[in-house]
Amino acid sequence: MDECTISQPFQLKNKRTTLKNRIVKSAMSEGLAAKNHLPDISIFRLYEAWAKGGAGLVITGNVMVDRRALGEPRNVVLEDGEHLDSFKRWAEAGTQNDTHLWMQINHPGKQVIKGVAKEAVAPSAVNFDPKLQRFFPKSRALTQNEIKEIIDRFATTAKLAQRAGFTGVQIHAAHGYLISQFLSPRHNQRDDEWGGSIANRFKFLREIYQAIRTEVGEDFPIGVKINSSDFMKAGFSEEESQFVIQELDRIGVDLIEISGGTYEKPNMTGKNVKPSTLEREAYFLEYAEQLKQKTDVPLVLTGGFRTRSGMNRALRDGATDCIGLARPTAVYTDYPNRLFQGRAGAISISPIKTGVGLIDDKALLELTWYSQQLDRIGRGKPTKPEFSPLLSLILTVVKNGRDVFQKRRE
């Protein structure tokens, strides 16, 4: 096939949207919203830095569709147009430098921390493993009317994002959030039209997409972030994931981002990844290669990429169309430009290890350490790539207590 590199433009299937290059800044939960769940100067600074950093597409962290359902304390919420000017400022900051800025929209379902939301809702009243469940309230099953209300909320948020100046939206259907819960036979045990077969479990996501498309029109890009697998017994499988993605392609989704795992099995953080996989850099590369044999839907592959040669090889081999980067951009906001200019070779991003076995084994500090870097950018300060993980741990526990390690999401 033709030579393909990260610096080349990419045109989506709608033929009306072209990304200036193949680098996508993937979503990371910023935890920087103001007390009223609105974006403010911290978020504007952060996204201006990312826009100037060179990525063709920047995807925001979770924006929740319902202020009653927050995944963590400082989530941004967009459910009405009352404060749309704040979101317009966000869009203006993040679309500088010919950058596309897509809003990731989400509902956490039962992944809501105790004390953050009054109740947890889910497809079915199925608890997490007891070790994890202690951080969450028990969930109850959604009613038919509530399911339809949530679908409408996704459509409303997407329409408001379009009005604010965002150039697309991404539906978060991965990592164990509500849509992911509907897709999973482990968590969705309904016996009505929303449960049972994978076709039925897909209905929630399908209707969310169709409701959004009705609101935003054909020219506005809609992406979906989805798991290759939940990596859990009786969970969402690779075969089911491939079925869903082929269906999404058929109904017109513009871009699929591949991830994997949930907070019960956090493979998206690099845990449990085989050495042979690490050699090829991307965590879900084999899955993407298999998927590309069945569909030509544009793909973003996120997780593990660190070198220009590894990225170009994945593009050249046809495993993916775009390269997703998250954590490197939390430390070096200009990481894409460094890649394009051949200046990224000396950058080293080591695993965040404290020397405390319980913390390191469960990768509890990984998300928190990176969130501290985002906070520094938002306050107009330089990042600290060499910031001590042990000091990060101490500061985190002093400020937030031990439970904070369950409060950072991707």
Strand content: 5-15%
Q: Kindly, what is the distance between the CA atoms of the first and last residues, rounded to a whole number of angstroms?
A: 34 Å
- CATH architecture level-2 label: Alpha-Beta Barrel
Number of strands: 14
| Largest sheet, spatial ordering of strands | 3-4-7-10-11-12-13-14
Number of domains: 1
Overall residue-averaged pLDDT value: 88
Please characterize this protein's 3D structure.
This protein has 410 residues and is α/β, with parallel strands linked by helices. The chain has a single domain (10-351), classed as Alpha-Beta Barrel (TIM Barrel). The chain is 36% helix and 13% strand. Helix 11 (308-316) links the parallel strand 13 and strand 14.
